[in-house]
Write a structure and sequence with these properties.
There is one protein chain. With 272 residues, this protein is of the alpha/beta class. The protein contains seven helices and seven strands. α3 runs antiparallel to α4 and α3 runs antiparallel to α7. The two termini are 34 Å apart.
Length: 272
Amino acid sequence: MPAGAAERHVDVAVMQPGYLPWLGYFDLVALADTFVLYEDVQFDKGGWRNRNRILGPRGGPQWLTAPVMTAGRLAQTIRDTELKPNSWQARHLRTIQQIYARAPFFDWCFPAIDRYLGGGTYRWLVDLCLDGHNALSALLGLQTPLILSSELGFRGIGATERLVAICKSCGATRYIAANASKSYMDESLWRPAGIALVYQNYPHPAHAQFGDDFVSHLSILDALMFVGPATRSLVGVSHPKERNAAPMHRQIVTVDVAGLDSGYPTITPAGA
């Protein structure tokens, strides 16, 4: 390494798939050198695997839920979770269109969502989530390599032991963990493996919506509709690549409407 050059982490993130995930999911995708989709673990009914939130008609959040078959299948994995065969995809598209038709970047964002949800009927939840990951990553310009956990193996061991094994197989020097994993993480296993453990602590930004009160922690669709291509600047921010560099703090972003003609608005962090 040249003298004075910053040493860079090799970052790995491991995350369960989700339907139309939030900004924090794509923050991990943007940070990672390898992103592992953890799809061979148990499906958590009532979690975020098959549902997410967008703006509602009265300004608060509303749920979009992909219906899944759970009767008699309580131990099924995400990979083996089957979707109910009804017209929910068309209903979700209509709802998204009705809510966001007046958003400044609707015409830029919606065609990709229409191709995703309107292109064919999904049978398996994992396929729905994987295609959504790819469609939304493309809108963000992200090309992070993705590996399915089922392709790596290491099953039948402890939860943290498996994460360590997955990260070692990917050549990680740092594992960026979702905050929810603190509840089960055995932090003592990472240092002996030569891998730094950090928790994400994503600084969720605020941006303009239709109302005066910002509704946070919605699907990334919300930011894409209101912030457009500049949403890319809102992800990949919680942990810098260079060692010893400081993470970013929460932003309040504004869109320069004059920039709408070019499709690339001006983003102004709070305090700038």
